[in-house]
Amino acid sequence: MPFTEPVTLRGLLVTLEPLSREHCAELEEAVRDGELWNLWYTSVPRPEGVAAEVDRRLALQDAGSMLPFVTRRVTDGRVIGMTTYMNIDSANRRVEIGSTWNAESAHGTGTNAESKLLLLRHAFETLDCIAVEFRTHWMNAQSRAAIERLGAKQDGVLRSHQMMPDGSLRDTVVYSVIASEWPMVRNGLELRLARR
Fold first, then answer.
1. pTM tops 0.70, yes or no
2. N-acetyltransferase domain: which residues (predicted)?
3. Which residues are paired to 137 by β-bridges?
């Protein structure tokens, strides 16, 4: 299966659907929940910037470097955020899971953990990846803790790695899960979700 072929991934808490322009209104509503764009160390769009962000992600999909999804909560059918496979390197069978944000009301509900389980399962069991990366801002303690709870291991820190919209420099923390670790990571995520 090609790495950028759109696919729907279904779980008990969330469904990851291929991103389309038709999701803009639902994403604008979701991004208002918590106003996460106010956190200086994130790259969450404002409601008026959602359409441009959707277009950006779809253009990267067309270029072969991203496969974007919306996250839809199963219980009420509401779109609660976005996530992607990005920096796709199909020749080396590697992807990064990133550019993820979820409505604040979804935090701590298991939806993010299940989204990551679905993406990791597809990456390792369908795409036959040898490694899956996660990257986040050094200052984003919440994101770093969530990535570590998944079972990903820190590979290192890329210092002064990116210029942020406010002109500051981002130190990027790089994590990964490799294929040999996937069974342990999968079991840990499944156990976490079963306890809910």
1. yes
2. 14-153
3. 172
